[in-house]
């Protein structure tokens, strides 16, 4: 999805409008279009200037969930699909951050390191990755296997933030790992005994779960969602420009990815 900048499909066209429409009129027209296309399920909260002359709109549904829609300059049509720029920049995600819909990577990292999150660091040398990790997620399992020798070699350190987003047993299993005397060792056991066939972590879930720790995992999952992350593993790191960045999934080439992570603290 991020490899090429694809032409975006126009969903629907409305009659041509005056090219000098006032802002209020433009918002009203955008709202009419979005409401019509969503069959009344969404409306426009506000509009803003988008890239290359496009019109951006913050849209909201009945549950108060907000998103970004891109419209043609005079609100004649809505564009379908992600809006991507050079080097795969997701302009929709950037707009969500600037419009306060999701947290920036820096804000998410600031929350992730709060002791209340019960995160834990594995490794003692190398640049630091902050990984949002579901104990049942098979991609997390694969990433863990790839990270283990790099951690042992001192090439990278990993802060694990345990979430429960994949299946019903994810939150109690995550709570059980955090309840262990050594969560890092419990996670190692979880991955060592991982059941790939049914995508279940190997660490046993006790009948009685520590509800306080289950709440920690649930809170971590909420942070995951508030930061606009959609799949585990998701990685926060400091890039070579000294800024906190998000890798939304498992890197295709982990060693090359780590080579691009700064060992210095982010701004």
Q: Overview of this structure, please?
A:
By secondary structure, the chain is an alpha+beta fold. Helices cover 33% and strands 19% of the residues. Helix 5 (170-179) crosses helix 7. The relative contact order is 0.12.
Number of strands: 10
Order of helices and strands: EHEEEEHHEEHEHHHEEH
Give the biggest beta sheet.
Answer: 5 strands, mixed
Beta-strand fraction estimate:
15-25%
Could you name the ranges where pLDDT drops below 50 across 5 or more consecutive residues?
A: 1-20
Summed up, the helix count is 8
Query: What is the average of the pLDDT values?
Result: 90
User: Reading side by side through the largest sheet, how are the strands ordered?
Assistant: 6-8-7-9-10
Quick recap of the structure?
This protein is an alpha+beta fold. Helices cover 33% and strands 19% of the residues.
What is the fold's blueprint, element by element?
Layout: E1 9-10, H1 23-37, E2 42-49, E3 55-61, E4 66-71, E5 79-80, H2 91-98, H3 105-112, E6 120-122, E7 128-134, H4 138-152, E8 157-163, H5 170-179, H6 183-192, H7 211-226, E9 234-238, E10 244-247, H8 254-259
Parallel strand pairs: 7-8
Antiparallel strand pairs: 1-5, 2-3, 3-4, 6-8, 7-9, 9-10
Helix pairs in contact: 5-7
